[in-house]
From TrEMBL:
Protein name as annotated: Aminoglycoside phosphotransferase domain-containing protein
Organism (species): Obba rivulosa
Residue ranges of every copy of the Aminoglycoside phosphotransferase domain listed in the record: 12-239
Length: 317
């Protein structure tokens, strides 16, 4: 990130994304975005809704006050339906894709911060968790990772597959709860915020990011482990219910889970060194195996629920 100057042009694209999503969403949507009231391009000032002091990020909620299964499933279902519908609308809006395609900085930044650092993360030994001793990833696997990084970077810079939010992770989801009649917490609203890297992108990368983050909660947080499992499963099922997912998108998503594990786990204070190293090695496995994986491999992974269901030899969408 230090190599990037995050220019103020990002505000133009963030405001455009927020306004477009607001137009697409029904007024009673549980998952929404802040309303933009004013944007002064000369002064670089955006005035938008505040989500309220009682809203917390989904990541904070998972790590400090693990939601009960019913609430966790509702959160996952709501987020999956939201992002699936968003990708469906974005893929069919040529004018929108053309407008956001001008956002070269957003595309370059998103590609670099994960795929531009994969090989160096595994080889340079600069991160404490991955040194002393070094990981010693076999050279043939490193070569494969380098190819995947190059190919995915190219795809992220050139694709017009769909419009993506660009940073769809639990830290950008503000959750507001309300007490239910039985005293248990119920979901009132989720705001998805920070749209400053919205652009044409790969749906699989977007899915992979949120799933990787939920998987990391499972690996490192006893408090949020069960809730994150419920959210992940419900999110994937809801996504596939609103947008048909082919094997190619699922492979891309699994590749990105691997890339996220490698690039981000050792850079964030998730937990003990050995578990971090295990997760990074798992990420390398996904990077090596997922690009050409058979359907059975994907179904056996943490993203198995993303693919259409199989029932008695047939496929049920």
């Amino acid at each position: 990130m230090a190599n990037f100057h995050f220019a103020l042009e990002r505000q133009t694209f963030e405001v455009a994304a927020l306004r477009r999503v607001k137009e697409w969403l029904p007024q009673d949507s549980v998952v929404t975005v802040p309303q933009v009231h004013s944007f002064d391009e000369d002064a670089n000032v955006i005035i938008m809704d505040d989500c309220g002091e009682d809203a917390v990020t989904l990541k904070q909620l998972l790590l400090t006050a693990s939601p009960q299964p019913l609430l966790a499933k509702e959160i996952g279902m709501s987020l999956g339906a939201f992002i699936g519908s968003f990708h469906s609308r974005g893929s069919g809006d040529d004018a929108c894709l053309t407008f956001f395609d001008k956002y070269e900085m957003g595309k370059s930044m998103s590609a670099f911060i994960t795929y531009g650092r994969l090989v160096s993360t595994l080889t340079e030994g600069k991160l404490p968790a991955l040194s002393d001793p070094p990981l010693d990833i076999p050279q043939d696997q490193l070569d494969r990772v380098a190819i995947i990084a190059k190919d995915t970077t190219h795809a992220m810079l050139t694709t017009r597959e769909t419009l993506v939010m660009g940073d769809f992770w639990p830290g950008n989801m503000l959750v507001k709860l309300r007490p239910g009649d039985d005293g248990e917490a119920r979901l009132e609203r989720i705001w998805v915020v920070d749209w400053e890297v919205a652009k044409p992108g790969l749906a699989g990368v977007e899915i992979g990011q949120i799933c990787a983050e939920l998987a990391l909660v499972q690996r490192f947080s006893s408090e949020g482990r069960e809730a994150s499992k419920h959210i992940l499963t419900a999110l994937l099922r809801a996504y596939r219910d609103v947008r048909t997912v082919g094997l190619d998108v699922a492979r891309t998503a699994l590749v990105h889970v691997g890339a996220h594990f490698v690039a981000w786990t050792p850079r964030v204070q998730w937990g003990d060194k050995e578990t971090v190293r295990e997760v990074v090695r798992e990420g390398v496995e996904y990077l090596v195996n997922a690009p050409e994986a058979e359907e059975e491999y994907v179904r056996g992974s943490l993203l198995g629920e993303l693919l259409p269901q199989e029932v008695s030899g047939s496929v049920v969408i």
